[in-house]
Write the structure tokens for this entry.
Amino acid sequence: MAFCHRTAASLWALLAFLVYIGFATAQEPEVSVSHFDNLPGRLFFFEDTSSVVYHDIVTGDLYVSQDEGKSWSRAEDIPGGIVSMVIPHPFDNRYAFALTDGMTHYRTENRGKTWRSFEVLAPLSYTPKPLSFHSDKWDHILYQGTICEQVSWNNVCTDVTYYTTDGFSSTPEVLLKDTSSCQFAHSSKDFKHSAHENLIYCVAYDSSSVGTSHHTLSSSRLYSSPDFFQTVDIEDLGIGKNAKGVIAFAVVSKFAVVALKDVISGNDGDMQLYVTVDTKEWARAQFPHASQARLRQNAYTIVESTIHSLAVDVMLQDQSTIGTLFVSNSNGTYFVESLKDTNRNMGGYVDYENVQGVAGVGIANVVMNALDVERKSAQKKLRSMITFDDGSSWSAIRAPSSDSDGKQISCDPSNLDECSLHLHSVTDPHNFGPIFSSTAPGLVMGVGSIGKQLSPYEECDTFLSTDAGLSWRMVQRQAHMYEFGDTGSIILAVNDEEMTDTVNYSTDFGRTWKSFTLGVSVRAKALTTVSDATSQKFILLGQLSRKDQREGDGRYAVIHLDFAGVLPRKCGDDDYEKWYARAKPDTECLMGVKQWYNRRKADVDCYVGDKFHLPAVYGEPCICQDHDYECDYNYVRSGDECVPAGLERIPSTQCTTGNPDEKYTGSSGYRLIAGNMCDSGESKKKDDPVEKSCSQAEPQEGEVTNQIHQFNAKVLQYQFFRESSTILVFLDDKTVWQSSNEGFTWEQRSPGEHFLGFYMHPYSNERAYLITESSKYVYTTDGGRFWHEHNAPSPPNTFGAPALRFQPRSDLLIWIGNVECDGSAENCHAQAQYSRDHGRKWQFIEDYVVNCDWARDDELLVDSSQILCESYEDKQHSQRSFGKDNALQLISGRDYYGKKTKLFEHVVGFTKFSEYLIVAEYLPTKDSLDLQVSLDGLTFATGKFPPGMHPNTHAYTVLESSTDSIFLHMTMSEWPNPFWGNILKSNSNGTYFGLSIANVNRNEVGYVDFDKFAGLDGIALVNIVANPVEAIISGRKVLQTRITHNDGGTWKPLAPPNVDSHGKPYPCSTTSCALHVHGFTERRDARATYSSPSVVGVVMAVGNVGDALAPYTESDTFLSRDGGFIWEEVHKDAHLWEFGDSGSIILIVNDEEPTDHVLFTTDEGLSWREYKFSHEKLRISTIITVPEDTSRKFMLLGYALGSRTSTIIQIDFTSLTHRKCILNEDDPAHDDFELWSPSEGRAEPCLFGRQTLYTRRKRKAECIVGKEVKTVPDIVRNCACGEDDFECEFNFVKNDEGICMPVPGTSPLVNDDSCRSDEEYWYDRTAYRKVTHSSCEGGQRLDHGTQHLCPGIRGHGVMFWIMVLIFPFAFTALIALWWYKKSGLARGTIRLPGDYSGGYMRSGSGVLDTLASVPWFLVGLAGIAYEYVSSRLDILVMGYRSRRGYRDLPVDEDAQILRFEDEEE
């Protein structure tokens, strides 16, 4: 580059004026101009100095100014054209590092005056932050490099982290290989902890993928070391071996944050955040909308955060630029929704910024027309909002009443909906550094417009607030760049819409403005000053007009503006005033203090002159209030109170006498929030210890405790919030009670209200709704901590439809209520309305409905705005009088029912199961039913059934569909005979149904003895009617149990144990002797299943060994540890059972008569211990625990005989042992877990065509598993296909020998000669089809008939297709991967303050404080090729699907879907 440095001192006339006490001289600003050929890739000041660095990224040259940009010189110590990146040291302003593409880099220790070279062992890694610094030791630095080696045809590259302890004075040493990033724990002044001074965290890959050409995401872990990885620790984040899939690590404010992709659950893109404030205890960040605010990779940004809380913006839809802002509590773990519909850009940046120096004030932009943007790709309409309380509440920004000329604005500022101020923000930056503010106390500027929404930038004006956003003035017409200097005593503004030769400035906080000419015309590109805005000198970066560009000069000008002589004197004490940083300093406090500054008065003619010294902030302590405290350890929030989560652990020296009146001193339940400085005054502190009875203390190890609570009415409904210790119960006296500690204590919700019941949100763990008889309902969005009242559009309906319907986007609700049902009720009907904002506003859907629901489900991934409604064709008169002659139509309405389509003219009902939408269509002309199935909610296929089993003549119940098929029970017996029927199973698209097993038992209301095992796909139990012919005559069913281990392909009797629980052989010894168990139709509670998702493979049942199932009271209790292959009797008599702590405790209670004790086992039934809970015997109806079965606390729900009340007994096994189970993958022989694999009795232990290993606790290990340990299925390999991997094809059925034979009178399906892209042959159909869920390979392929060559693609040789197909895609993928890594967007990228790829940045400005995952669109440059590249990062894992409620489709005259809410999964 031809660099031309030319300094021209402008000669301006001096203006002298006379004052009464003498003469003072005020000068015009001085101007100096330097020229450059290119804009800078980086322009920054060394912190608190006058030294500036200008990096020309085009030429690779570096320029330095030691006088705030007045004069410049090239860094002569660095050869020309080699600098690719320059990084200032964030903690020592003497140092900076100029990095090249080679292995020689450069360091300055005198702010750019001289540079010295240093050598490294590997070239720079393509990452935005290749250097990581120690906050207390300037010379401790981590360097991220890349080493490559040739492997066959491939160039395999891996990232290696190096370290230096002498600032690169010597060659750095290897720290760790195969890393994504490394960072010192001491890398932030705000992140204060007591960890070792050299503790380092690294995101790296474990041994399972080291040395390979690519890494799987599941091998990415967080490692730590205090001695530069001479010793290595794996950070388990409190979840043990499942702390895999680490995406990124970052320190944000006082928090260390780990982003983890949940490779266990199988949820595509689901992310988890783990947070620590002390490097010792990690906690998972909890969001209130478990499904709607689901963290997905590429879809969240940790925005600028305070030392009090984390702020996270979550993108709620894929391929969207609209989010929701969440703000955490003081330890960063519990988040609440702060602001909806926040504006984002495609790069993941969010329109959100805190006002500097003023705690609690922030400005954000929201999208007013979010629905239109999401649905119609409409242009965004933005609206600005401001908060003064750290995001607890937001309001529109009040507009000034007049413009910069003093004229009245065109709208009424008191009407904030139509007339407020809107400002351009982070997503549309036009300058360096923060958008709105600097360190000048209370001064905030912005470019924006007044009205209903934000105008385009070029149509905006410039506004200023001097009170941190409370009030605003228009200070300049048109959009201007602006900058603060001398702590706000000088404000500059430069036109940002067109070429200009003028700079405007104000010395009285924007009340009046002066201007001066530059002597040249420029198009402003940036306006900046020293990072703390305390200097009177500025840099204006601009592009010269062609007429001002001289030959030999560069096109770009750095204009140095010196205002040192503009203000005549330095301010004295009388020139300052006390300025409070909050709106109401007498009442508003944040973290226990009122904030104020000693700020220069606006109307004084003086300069502050404290260069490089930030304004001092002062705090006046506030009297401590309730909001200054949070719940102490082992306490949980319940409304306004903190209640104990259980009994309190105390020192062994207390409560030792056995005296029932003995006391101990324990926690009050509260603690002052960390960092809060409130003054407790003379009164008693809320967190002072209190004296308590020893009955509230946790017992000694080995003891069990219980608490008894009696309700004055019967319990009708109960349910836990998922992943919570909070449970709700509904009584028949219409009251609702809540326990936040698993039944330890109880409190009534909304006393005085009469409720009809409650709903738990099936997709959001922390939402629940208490329904009253009126339109009022009470709801919570935080797991019952706080409850709020809302009004629905109408009272809940009395037509049998659920009052509320939900979908994964948890703010979307449907309400079905009664309309015109008062008085004569001549037109009484059900009306449906929907809400997009969680009930704040409701919109009409349809009248005269039987059911309305969202089409979208967890696995039915259709349009989220699609609504399905069953509604009557004739919408007149009372709906109660309607019969079959009024057609019940199924209407689909996309765009929130704005675009309606009639799907079916007459239906009985519809339901959703997994990925299937199932409709029972009524055919009036035939007076019969058809089953219609859809996978997309729009197109349907008619179900095909075997002869004699069509739904036009039989009632049917849709059972389950978790294994890529639909199971259907078709009733074959007729009333008044006992009910039974056949179970049919569909193909993968739910259309062709074949017989799986005949004569399966059902009851009168349609429930079926069919139960799948949790966590083990394809294993199910049924009870069949063994005497169907006799039962028609006698009315008595003889039941026998059958089990399948291949998803209904084959069914077998249960193998009986050899001896009973007393070691005695069973009297039944013939070949017909088997184990038979009582099934679903006999349960009082549908949630009491055989198995538990937390104890995969362990199954319990009540039954007997014999020829048939005996009565319940003549049965015993059995257990299997291997998914039902081998059973053992574990106790005599029938018992209720429940699993706790992932199976480390199993509790049983007598289910034949009243009892006063329970039995429990810690070795899965080898031995039992008794615990007496009461002196009075109670009839126990249910055992309750958290739905995940991970707690050591249980509740017995029972009643005294003849009583109208209910009793809940909490039994707490927390103190039974304090030893935590150890999981050691490196030394499995010495831990508490073992691997096991279910077997089908074949030569190899395979299930569904694959060998899968599960982790389970060793049977005799006495330890606590804990809540976080999950059973992770590990698919070892696929197995060869065998008979059990196949089932009968459509129109075939198994004979007595188990061979699939044609159904008489039917024809087989025609051959399918289509070829998939990876198939060489197609095959004639046979009598068999492969079980959809099986992944077997090769072996015995019963589904393959005659082989046929696929046409077309095989006409060329292998090398032809390699050249045509592989090479172009490989090249494209290579380019995509290169760009992906070079642009800093590789997996694991962390964006922190000021991380711009080739953008401008000012050192230490704290621009964004952003941790963002890789934005989806930026890495999609090569389309399909990138999909291939990125897919190599992930592996598929199997998850479990929880049980769902049955839906029954009868065919009687009043037929409709039988619905019940069994949403606890």
Observations:
- The CA atoms of residues 531 and 1404 lie 6 Å apart.
